[in-house]
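Record type: ASSEMBLY
Status: queued
Input:
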Amino acid sequence: MLALEGVRVLVVEDDTFILMDLESLLTEAGAEIVGLCRSVEEALPVVEREELDVAILDFGLGDGTAAPIARSLLARGKPFCFYTGQVANDPRLAAWRNYKTIQKPAQPKTIITALRALLTRESDFRMDRRGNAGPTSGKGQRS
Amino acid sequence: MDGVGEQKEDKSRSTPTIVGIGASAGGIPALQAFFKALPADTGASYVVIVHLDPNVQSELAEVLARHIQVPVVQVKQSERLLPDHIYVIPPDRRLELSDHTVSAVEFAEPRDQRAPIDLFFRSLGEHGDGFAVILSGAGSDGALGVRKVKESGGIILVQDPDEAEYGSMPRAAVATGVADVVMPVEELAHRLADLIRTKKPDGESGHVDEELLRRVLAHVRVRTGHDFSKYKRSTVLRRIARRMQVIRTEDIRGYYEYLREHPEEAQALLSDLLISVTTFFRDRDAFDAIKVKVLPQLFESKEANETIRVWVPGCATGEEAYSIAMLLAEESTRHDEHLPIQVFASDMDTRALNIGREGQYPAAIEADVSEERLRRYFTHEKDGYKVRQEIRDLVLFASHDVLKDPPFSRVDLISCRNLLIYLDRDLQEQVCTTFHYALNPGGFLLLGSSEMADNPPGLFRTIDRNMRIYQSSASNGERPRLLPRLLGNYALRDAGFPAIRAPTGPSVALSDAVAHRRAIEKLAPPSMLIDEAHKVVHLSEHAGRFVQPSGGPMNSDVVDLVKPELRFELRSALHRAFDQHLSTLTLPIPVRFNGSVHRVMLHVHLIPEDKAGEAKTALVMFIEGQSAGDGAGASQEFEAKDDTVRRLADELELTQARLRTVREESEAANEELRAANEELQSINEEYRSTSEELETSKEELQSINEELQTVNSELKLKLEAISRAHSDLQNLMAATDFSTLFLDSTLRIKRFTDQVTQLFSVTPSDEGRPITDFAHQLEYDELVRDARAVLADLAPIRREIRSRSGRWYDLRLRPYRTVDDKIDGVVITFVDVTERRSVEEALRGSEQQLRQQKALVELSRAPIFMWDFDGGVLDWNRGSEELYGYSREEAIGKRKEQLLKTVVPGSSFEALRRQLAETGAWSGELLHTTKSGKEITVESHIELESLDGRRLVLESTRDITERKEWERRQQMLLSELTHRVKNTLAVVQSLAQQTLRHAPSQEAFVERFNGRLTALANAHGLLVQSDWKGADFRALAESQLSHFSANPDRVRLEGPPVTLGPDLATPFGLVLHELATNASKYGALSGKRGEVHLRWTLEDGNNRVLRVLWEEKNGPHVAAPGDAGLGTALIERGIPKAKVEREFRPEGFACTIEVPIS
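Status: finished
Output:
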């Protein structure tokens, strides 16, 4: 069985090639891509709309950051990790240093392992979305 | 007093009497009223002196003439005085009188010192007697002149000061005490007319009743205690005549009556007798002679501190005494030694003495005293001049009669001018003797121009005969001197009855008289003085022998008193004497005396009468012969009786003889006792009068004693105060650290503090020596010059001088002022200011340094400023102005943290202050806001300094904003670079993985991966060129396409300049690369003729859209590939938000890409 068999993943990445590469990588790992987004504006409706299991976010998006997306995910108890080229001491990252961050570039298996680990620790995120509970709805459909 | 008046006696007889009238302010109405009231026929000449403006014609003569009948003349040059004429002074002239001619003379004095009334009165006085009238006026002109007139026997009339419009001139005249008549002006005129009428020419009273004159003088003596009987007769007569005139008495008897009825007249006559006129420096030549011939000798003969004693008897109002005092003071300044000077000025006239003591003289003395002396010895006061205290201190005024009182003793100089001329020769001799007694050996005597000291001879030798300067001929050691006999009151009284006693010495005369009387008594026969009624008036010494009163009641009839044998003869003889005026000498009459019979003759004389009407007296003399012969016969008779009787008779005779001897002895003794008694009685008389005098003196002494006690207790209090002050002064002198030196006006050391000995080589015994004698430690040679300058200018001098030992002194010279503001030397203080100077120098040095440092701070571009820990900004340099934009004026006083909005990162300003207060320093980064609102970061160094309880904070800052910014940028760039590198690596990784995924072989992978990597690198290269801002589309296309075709014609580019952002440039680069790769593999560029046409357009509008058209032509036929490779995926999805359409047309592949660009 593939590492991410049936896992619904949101990918947010502003670089076309990396986005395409992540798509290939995750698809090959059995994941179902619920969104390939290049910006916050593209990603937020996906978060609201799709039942997703996990998200991988580039931190720096154009002139902004992925923080609004992360906050939206947190609000829904969805686990996520950052995949970013930002240096670790970037002040914009400081507020998120308790969350999983994968430094670019990373081995494909590192990314896969990280996402798997997030899924097993889903409860951590769920504890954070108190007051917004509810059973995960069934498998979403591809956009 | 001089005798000029007497010489003019005869002239005034034939010429009119002269009346001088002085008036000034308010004088015209007074003159008019005066002349109106004056009869026109008085026969006198009137000379009117007023003060006139020298520059204006005088209308006075015309004004007066309007109301008066007598002619009024203004004196032109000189006018012979005529009776009943009025002569008026012309402007700017004074009038002089000589030989009955009045002349106008120019003034010698400057305008403000003129006293024309005085000047005229003086010349009137010298001319002879006359009348002086003072009317209304201001000032004191005339006051000196009236004395002169009065001295010459003139009469002074003064308008009542209360009536006068200006009372000051009349008041001054009255104050001299010589005014005879003071009344309102009209009465004054009437009185003057009376006086002129009754005025007798001098000398007419030549036949004076000597007895009355004696009585008048006796009366004056009794009333006033002054005896003028030995004054020159002519002078005395003249004064009495003047008084008679004033009280309008015709003869001396009437005057005597008046004198007895009016006690005050005695005083008035005394004043007249004493009147004298003296002036300052009278007889200038005499004073010059004194100055040259007497004073230097006087000073040289004295040891240090020996007092020079001068006596001026008859000083009157003191002018002469002051003149001599001034000469002495002047002479004193010429000698090094400062000798004390004492001038005794004495006179009988206490009123004159008071004037002298006061020292206040009218302005007219300007004529006698040089301007320099006036300035030096007088102060200008009221209307006149007052002798300065320092001269007044030299002169002591005393009431003293040179004839009567014991003289002052040990005197060096006597100036007695014009006193002897008033005395007769005897008194002159007495006074000369007195002077000789008073003078020290070699002492000087100055007399008036017509006096001499030749009698008694040998007392004085002449120094200058013309100037009447004499020197005592006594030599040292010729003492003891005898006080000459003075005219005591006793002597004066006796001198008043010359008929009783010969003018020989009283005690000698007394004993002679007794001896004579005794001799006469002894030798002359006993006698009796009998009056007409036969009463015994007087018995001679031995006349009692013949007296044997008869029994019965006591009868005073001489006939009943004498022995019975003599009675008959005496009676008949007395009858002959009184009735027939015949002397009788009787025949011898046997009279029994104690048993023996003596023959006695009576001699009766009628005494010739001195004056008619006097009682007749007769003298009865008893001339006694030897005992009668019958006595011898009787003894013989008894001889025969018996021996017992004889023996008894012998014894009796013996006893009788013894008795006779005893009686004679007794009589002689008795005689002596009588003489002694006589003498004792007269002595007793003297003692009684002396006793009375002593009683009076005692009372006076008691009152003086009381006064003295009061004065003494006052003095004691003063002495205590002075002692206290003195001890204070001593302590002050001892306690003071300053050197203080007191010098007197001749620069002799008076006193100094101990510290002075460090500067001058003086010891306490040097007090009194001139300061010039001493060497000193100061580099200061002008000490003496400066001290003199202080004495001269009275302005303190201050200098800083150095001593030879290098110390500095603040030297101050100030005049020494006595309590009564006399300048009596110089006070010099030396204050050691060495330390102060060195401190000052150090201070100057540090001040200089400080100024330099301050200038450095000010010049510094670095912001440095100072603020009060508890307050605002205190200092603000240029660097601060430049950095913060606030000018110095804006910054000072504001609180620094408010001005600069200080923010302490990670802390607070309060914490900073606390640390500053604890450790005194702080340094670190602060945020400040400038005036323009820019926030800057500064590196600040702060130090806290405490100064005088104030906490000052020094702060220097350095602007590090730019450095911080650069660091931040640097950091950011580094992060950016890392980020980009990581991203790029991630992209490369993705490309590699995807390429690998689709690569059929390893070779193919390498080729494709290399191509894509190159495309990526080219796009990056362009972006780097533009600093990652963007890449031009054409340049991007060329960089991707150039290596696919060497021929540029096969690839044509066409489109406007478009810049792609970094987010598009890289994907576009790769897309173009893929398109070109496809074209060279399968499309138009794969063959030899194919072309690629790349066109692009930019649609403007709200959304700019880039439309890119890739068209291939003339290539091989292409068809859509079966499976979509990575290239296709890249083309279709590689560019975000792009719309991509691919067409496989028959003529070639075409691709349209539409992408919105911002």
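Annotation: Strands of chain A lie at 8-12, 32-37, 54-57, 60-61, 64-65, 80-84, 101-103.
Annotation: Helices of chain A lie at 16-28, 40-49, 67-76, 91-94, 108-120, 122-128.
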